[in-house]
Amino acid sequence: MQDKTIRGDRLHIAFFGRRNAGKSSLINALTGQTVSIVSKTPGTTTDPVFKAMELSSIGPVVMIDTAGIDDTKDELGSERIKASEKILGRTDFAILVADLTSQDFSYENDLLALFDKRNIPYIITLNKTDLEMSEEAEEWIKEKAFVRVSARLEKGIAELKKRILEKAPSDWEPPFLSDLIKPMDIVLLVTPVDLGAPKGRLIMPQIKALRDILDADAIPMMCKERELLTALSSLKEKPALAVTDSQVFPQVNADLPGDIPLTSFSILSIRQKGNLKQMIEGLSVIKALKPGDKILIAESCTHHPLEDDIGRIKIPRWLNNFVGGGLDIKSVPGYEYPDNLNDYKLVVHCGACTLNRIEMLRRQEIPEKEGVAMTNYGVLISFLKGIFPKAIEPFPEMADFIHKKKSSKDISIIKRMASLAEI
Which of 101, 209, 231, 257 is the most buried (most CB within 10 A)? Predict the structure, then answer.
């Protein structure tokens, strides 16, 4: 059966190096498939190539082939280098492919410095071991851990796989919700039929919640919002946790007994994929928003806009209602932000279910460096609907953030937002 794990839930392993170092050949040898075109002509790989596969003992991974970091300095070559550098923002684990016949390792040293700067674990592979090693290579590799391979002859591949299994991070993605529950707990999932999901399918955060509950030996119960009261009345024990679609927060909160913890799929998703505290802090700018202020709605995936699209219709409407109208709101799908990001007062990001964690953290770093506040669909909706404090109370790591002062002069952002939500 073909593995349907989405790219955002896979460990991203990227191959970097010079043109013609053998990156594409090495990926083909590792996967046992022709993933990338191989040629003696330097620069054959232009755009990054992604290959999803299963790697024994690790599970679902994505192998990424990048263009040579020493590409030509013309406009096209520069764009290839930029594309390869952007892949660093998605890389959980790097493999530096070096040609042992080379006489210059300045580019390789630059890459190693980038890996260290971004805290990316890596392996160095010396390729073309069927050829004679240069004196420069012998000197460069001293006191470095490395694996000798010949991608062309498929030698050293077993050792490289072994080293990947040993060094690849095991904690690259936190749990979705299993850390919030214990075996035999009942978890109630309130799941309106999402118009954006193909018929017969749930959206990804709902699927992840179900799988996490089952893996924790807990008991999932699922219903639509209009069936919530019936579902509750059928239970002999109350749920340990309720999770809802953010869009029906008010209805679910009204029907749910107050002592049952409640949060949303979007909040759970961004907690797993990114920095939830930063998303909460981003709410601090909302009270100061005024007509004419620019708001960016950032969607990590591209999809056909729906009639009442959450990111392009509902959230803009709710924000304008809260502020009194006149906000300049723009929606941008995909991986990149607009160049004029610092013109915006607030970035509102989706649940990031199609991104891996390192990519989402990178996306959070960019607005932070520009001095632009950032929040998330679920966090924002819970605030606008007056349910914000309850929606984050299920998370143990938020306890200090909720109840303690950050300093003698600064009360917790959550307490301030709770008072705003009551206005």
Answer: 209
Q: CB–CB of 292/326 below 8 Å?
A: yes
Q: For the residues of 234-290, what is the DSSP string, one character each?
A: T-SS--SEEEE-GGGHHHHHHHS-TTS-EEEHHHHHHHHHS-HHHHHHGGGGGGG--
Helices 265-273 and 357-370 pack at an angle, to 10 degrees, of 90
Architecture per CATH, domain 7-167, reads as 3-Layer(aba) Sandwich (3.40)
Tell me: pLDDT of 133 over 70.
yes
The DSSP line for 6-37 is -GGGSEEEEEEESTTSSHHHHHHHHHTS--S-
CA distance 134 to 98: 12
308-362 pLDDT, tens digit per residue, is 788 889 999 999 999 999 999 999 887 789 999 999 999 999 988 888 898 899 9
Cβ density class 177-206: b for 16+ within 10 Å, e for less: bbebbeeebbbbbbbeebeeeeeeebbbbb
The third-level CATH classification (topology) of the domain covering 178-268 is Rossmann fold (3.40.50)
Q: How far apart are CA 231 and CA 219, in angstroms?
A: 14
Q: Which of 89, 43, 31 is nearest to 69 (CA)?
A: 43
Whole-angstrom distance, CA of residue 326 vs CA of residue 320: 7
Q: Locate 299 and state its tokens.
A: 């969607």
CATH for 275-421? 3.40.50.11410
List C-alpha distances in Å: 153 to 23, 156, 294, 383.
14, 9, 56, 59
